[in-house]
Design a protein that fits this description.
Blueprint: H1 9-21, H2 29-42, H3 45-58, H4 61-70, H5 82-95, H6 99-103, H7 110-130, H8 151-201
Helix pairs in contact: 1-7, 1-8, 2-7, 3-5, 3-7, 7-8
Length: 202
């Protein structure tokens, strides 16, 4: 998502709208990581820090702690300090962007990568409209000095992940129940065979 590509504005708008509505169903996680990696490799450092700090401030503390645990030692994070987290995260993105996929593949952080990419899209659009190429662009919410963000959109990404985890948990419980029934059936068969054999001897 950096530098700004006017032929991909529809992609930026798609992610920005997803952030506002909290519906990330149309966003591909792998594609999102590619956009995020591109932003981390090329965007101005101050813009990156601003985006990441906002992201970490909105992230629940428990999730910040998990992310901090996943980070390599050389990029240590303090989950109590979103500002320092943004600096460590930005440095990691510049030096080892290939780690992004592993970080956001954690079950608890599944939606965080997409939510961050969507937030990046909003900032990129706002930055473009503020510091554009001299052309005339339509007035929109992106043209404001400080874009307005919908924190519910960020939280919705985690809600969708929670729903997915609940579905997986239900499937696991059903599988465990089926295995338990099979074990009981086998045990019953083992108990019945000797009895049947004993009756045949008489």
């Amino acid at each position: 998502m950096w530098p700004f590509d006017q032929f991909k504005q529809h992609i930026y708008r798609q992610y920005a709208q997803a952030y506002d509505t909290g519906d990330y169903s149309a966003c591909d996680p792998n594609e999102a990581m590619g956009h995020l990696q591109q932003f981390m490799q090329g965007a101005p450092v101050d813009l990156q820090h601003r985006v990441y700090q906002q992201h970490f401030e909105q992230m629940p503390y428990e999730h910040r702690a998990i992310l901090a645990q996943q980070m390599p030692p050389q990029y240590a994070m303090d989950p109590n300090d979103p500002s320092s987290m943004s600096q460590s995260f930005a440095r990691m993105g510049r030096e080892q962007p290939q780690l992004l996929q592993r970080l956001f593949s954690h079950p608890i952080l599944l939606g965080s990568g997409i939510a961050l990419t969507a937030l990046v899209a909003k900032h990129v659009l706002a930055h473009h409209y503020q510091h554009g190429d001299g052309q005339s662009y339509p007035q929109s919410q992106y043209a404001q000095e400080q874009p307005i963000y919908n924190q519910a959109g960020y939280n919705q990404g985690y809600q969708q992940d929670n729903e997915l985890r609940r579905e997986l948990a239900n499937e696991r419980r059903q599988e465990q129940e089926l295995r338990r029934e099979l074990r009981e059936e086998r045990e019953w068969e083992r108990e019945e065979r000797p009895r049947h054999h004993h009756r045949e001897e008489f």
